[in-house]
Amino acid sequence: MDLAAAGFSRIWTIARNVFLEVVRDRILYIVGVFGIIMVMAIALLPEVAAGTENKLIIDTGLAAINLLCLFVVVFVGTGLINKEIEKKTVLVLISKPVSRLEFVLGKHLGLSLVMAVLITALITVMLSFLAISGVPFQLNLMLLAVLFMFLEMVLLIAAAMMFGVITSTVLATLMTLAIFAVGHETRNILELDRIAESESFRRIAEGLFLVLPDLERLNLKNEIANGFVAPPSGGGLLENAVYGLIYTALLLTVTVTVFERRQF
Where is the signal peptide (predicted)? Predict the structure, then answer.
């Protein structure tokens, strides 16, 4: 029990350092940018979308939160471990009584906490603007949307860290963006597989569907904008949330395995 408590203490120390470093440098700027986006959306969309402006404002706000969080995940997450390797500071960290598993989990937890704070701040700003401008919304549905968005970001943090351990920061950034883009199209890839005539293409499509994360399972933005929640593709809400957590755990397992085999 003492060993478990000591391990968690080390993980928490690493997580806290990551959290303080990232929050201090970036969060206020991102919240400010999002505020500008919401002001522009509320001011301009009613002029070009008569009758559907409320839906578009909510859609724009949720999409902006998603993209701003993705920006942080990609440009911070890919360097969480790689930066330590390039600066050789990883030698100091792992020479202390800190295992590589604790190091990876601490980094992931730290950036996940940043995501929790950032998403909370952005949705608070968004709901404030919606209330002030008189745009109707359902609070429980909005909170459900950002909860699943948080699960998506937690998964992408794990992917960014994995790529950061395997390759350079630049390539890791591109690969994480590719995972985000393709992860939302895996269902379409499967549809192509069903209509394709080429056997080799079908095998490739099926392989991609099995390996790549199905991020549409964690995407509730369209349903929320339309004022209801139908279970996204792939199963019910609880099943999809568990899917996201399991996939995150698998990515972290790969990250730890590769990191433990690296020589510095």
Answer: none
Alpha-carbon span 151 to 4, nearest angstrom: 26
What does the DSSP assignment read for 18-45? HHHHHIIIIIHHHHHHHHHHHHHHHHHH
Strands (E), 63-156: none
C-beta of residue 157 within 8 angstroms of C-beta of residue 251: no
- Closest Cα to residue 77, out of 181, 155, 183? 155
> Can you tell me which residue has the tokens 């929050």?
23
Tokens describing residue 17: 């350092």
Q: First CA to last CA across the chain, in angstroms? A: 32
As a whole number of angstroms, the distance between CA 152 and CA 3 comes to: 31
Task: Supply the pLDDT for residue 252.
Answer: 96
Residues 203 and 183: beta-carbon distance below 8 Å: no
pTM metric for this prediction: 0.89
Closest CA to 170 of 70, 68, 75: 75
Is the confidence at residue 218, as pLDDT, over 80? yes
Burial class of residue 92, CB neighbours in 10 A (0-12, 13-18, 19+)? exposed
Instruction: Return the structure tokens found at 190.
Output: 């499967």
